[in-house]
Amino acid sequence: MSSRGGSQASGTAQVLAPLPSGTAYRAERPAFVWLVEREVLRFLKIWHFTIVGHVVSALLFVVVFGFALDGRVSGVQGIPYSQFILPGLAAQAMLNVGYINGTTSLFEARHYRYVNDVLASPLRWWEVNAALVAGGIVREVLTGASVLAVGVPLTGVGVRRPAILLAAVVAVLIVGAQLGVLVGSYARSLDQVYAIETLLVLPLGFLGGIFYPVSRLPGPWQVASELNPAFYVVQSLRIGFLGRGDVPSGLALGVVCALAAALTGWSVLIFKSGSLLKP
To answer: Which of 250, 9, 273 minimizes the C-alpha distance to 129?
Structure first.
C-alpha cells in the first residue's frame, strides 16, 4: 500500500516537476502568426456580415445600374456600362472592408485595453502593425475576389493588362488596410470611426469616377476629381481590366503606389512611438 502510494507520489512529482533550467521554451506557433490568426478569425466568425454584405452591395450596383443603364450610358469608347463600373465597385468594396477591419479591430483593442497584452508580448512594434494589416488584407482579398467571381461572368469583362492589374491590386490592398489601422489608432469613439467612413471614405469613392468617365466632366469638376486619391485607385483597376482609362496607366499606378507608401510610413511612425496605441 505504502509502496503504491509512494509510486503515485513519485509519478505526481515527476509530472509537476519544473523543466530543467537548460531547456528552452518553445511556443506552439510564433506570436506573429497567432495575432494574424486572431485578426482573421475575428471577422470569419461572422462572415455573412463582414464579407457577404459588402459583396451583395457591390453586385446590386452592377445589376441595378449596370444592366439598367447598359445601352443608354456608354463607358469608355463604347465599353458596356456594366463592365465599366465593375472595376471601380470592386476597388471600393476592398477599400471599405480594409478601412472597417482596421478601425474596428484597433479601436476595440484600445477601448477594452487588451492591446496592452499585445504590446507586452514578445511581438515587436512592426510585427503588430504587419499582423493588423495582414488581417485587413485577407478580408479585402476575400471580398474583392467574391465580387469579381460573380461580376466577371455576369458582365463578361476581361483582363487586358494583367501586370498593371496585379500591381494595382497589391497597392490598393495596402492602402485600405493601412488607412483602417491609422484611423483606428486616432479614433476616440465609434462615432468618429463611422463619421469618417460616411463623410470621407464613401464620398471619395463615389466621386472617384466609379459610375462615370471623369473626362466628360466640366473643367473645374474634372480638376477636383483628379485631386481625389480614390480616382487613381479606380483608374488603376479599370486600366488593368479594360486596358484604358481617364489617365495614363503609369500615372494611375504611380499615385496609388505612392499613397500606399505614404500611409505605410505614417503607420510605421505611430506604431514605433506607441503613444497613440495606449488606451
So the answer is: 273
Neighbours of 126 (CB within 10 A): 13
Euclidean distance between CA atoms 67 and 80, whole angstroms = 9
Task: Classify residue 71 as left (phi > 0), alpha (psi -120 to 50) or beta.
Answer: left
- The sign of the torsion formed by the CA atoms of 200, 238, 100, 272 equals negative
DSSP designation for 278: -
Give dist(CA 156, CA 167) in Å, integer: 22
What's the pLDDT at 75?
Answer: 53
Encoded amino acid at 50, one letter:
T
pLDDT tens string 78-136: 788 889 999 999 999 999 999 999 999 998 888 888 888 888 888 888 999 999 999 99
What are the residues facing 70 on neighbouring strands? 73
The 10s digit of each residue's pLDDT in 16-72 is 555 565 556 466 778 889 899 999 999 999 999 999 999 999 999 988 887 777 666
Q: Which helix (H) or strand (E) holds 128?
A: helix 125-155
What is the grid cell recorded at 87?
Answer: 472595376
Spatial separation of the C-alpha atoms in residues 117 and 262, rounded to whole Å: 28
* Host H or E run for residue 13: helix 2-16
Cell readout for 95 is 477599400
Percent of the chain's residues with pLDDT above 70: 87
**Ranges of H-type helices in 20-80:** 31-44, 47-50, 52-61, 68-69
In contact, 143 and 55? CB cutoff 8 Å? yes
Grid coordinates of 58: 457591390
Q: What is the pLDDT averaged over residues 172-187?
A: 94
The span from the CA of 39 to the CA of 31, in Å, is 12
Q: Are 204 and 224 in contact (CB under 8 A)?
A: no
Among the listed residues 204, 210, 214, the one whose alpha carbon sits nearest the alpha carbon of residue 259? 204
Quick check: helix, strand or coil at residue 70? strand
